[in-house]
Structure formats: structure tokens, C-alpha cells
Amino acid sequence: MRLIVENLACRRSGRRIFSGLSFTLGPGEALMITGRNGAGKSSLLAMLSGRLKPDAGTIRGEDIGDAGLPECLHVVGHRDGLKSALTAQENLDFARDLLGDAQLTPGEALAAMGLPHVARLPVGYLSAGQRRRVALARLLVCRRPLWLLDEPTAALDLASQDVLAAMMGRHRAEGGLVVAATHQALGLEDARELRIGPATAEQVLDERIEESWA
Ligand SMILES: Nc1ncnc2c1ncn2[C@@H]1O[C@H](COP(=O)(O)OP(=O)(O)OP(=O)(O)O)[C@@H](O)[C@H]1O
Question: Ranges for the ABC transporter domain (predicted)?
């Protein structure tokens, strides 16, 4: 698939966060979204996943057949979306049934993340890093070409960061796309970087002029 983003603008609580943001991502490509705290990285991922409406601009997928963009992507965000009372295995079973297009079994995905021993433990009993690894294992139980990852290495030890880097490498080798918001290197070879900065004084002025005419 291809992801095409044109002239995207974001406004939160009435304040312009970024504007004029464009990029295209093709099969096997990766994009690192960087920028200081509050620059709008998570907001951009929320827009790409369809959870947040852009203030302006368009987001579309090409070569995705009859599927809509939301059916082509996986999100691993700050909030992991795991149910604490369910076991790791049950959480992954749930994701697999819900999302369809099954790939690895939950057991295989947990083994790939180095967590075969936690399959039958409620996720609420896991450490922060183990819990994040279960959230990342969800990427492997269903095939989705576009991975949207928000600080994916948060709470991961160095060995798990290497596992994640290898996972993203395999995904890209199979034609998958990765968009990751991050403050640190992720081991993404040949990744492009999109640095989001605060709106310039000129943009803020343009916006005020537009508003005064509206
Ligand atoms: N739900 C919300 N409602 C209103 N404003 C929000 C909301 N979420 C975030 N914001 C604001 O939008 C701006 C961008 O936040 P965002 O979380 O996208 O930044 P970020 O670049 O991901 O930051 P960080 O590096 O700290 O994770 C911030 O000023 C934040 O206060």
C-alpha cells in the first residue's frame, strides 16, 4: 500500500499545533516522527489512525483494494488497549478475532516477543515492559500493512528494543510501512525523519488574518 498525506493541519483546544504537513510512504518505507514534547506527534498518529479529524488536509491509502484505511493499520499507542483482567493469550485471541486476517497464533507471537511464559497470566500482573511487549505482539497476530507506533520502545529493555527493530525490519521486507513517533533511535534502517516544529509566527499571523475574515 501507499500512504499519502497532503497539507495536513492540526488544531487542539483552539490552538494551531502544525500545518502544511505532507508526505508519502510506499511499501517497505519507514517514517520517524520527531519533535519536542507537545509538538503534535501523537496527534498526527491519531489523525492517521482516523481517531482525530484534521483541521485541514487529506490522508489516503492507495493499493488497499476495497478496504478502508482503518482496516489497513495497527496502532500501538501510549495506552496499550489491553484488558488487565484477561490473560496475555486471551488479549491476543481477542485482537485476532476482532481484526481478522490472522497471521501468527498468540502463542507464536508471544514467543517472538520472548514472553511464552506469560501467556496464561492476567495482563494486570505484568511489568510495564512485559505489558508493552504483549501490546507489540498484537502486531504479529494479524496482518496489517501500516504500523502506527507511538513511542514503541517506552519501557522496553535493550534486548526487547532489538527484537522490535528486527520485527519492524521483517515487516518492511514484506512490503509493510512503519510510522513511528519517537524521541530515540529505533533501529529503523533508511528511515526518513519528519520533524514537527511549533507553528511559526508567520503561520499564526496568517491564521489570525484568515479568522478575522471568516
Ligand atoms: N485530547 C486533547 N485535547 C486537547 N488538546 C490536546 C489533547 N491531546 C493533546 N493535546 C494538546 O495537543 C498538543 C500536541 O500534543 P501531542 O500529544 O500530540 O504531542 P506529542 O508531540 O506527541 O508530545 P510528547 O512528545 O510529549 O508525547 C499539546 O499541546 C497537547 O496539550
Answer: 3-213
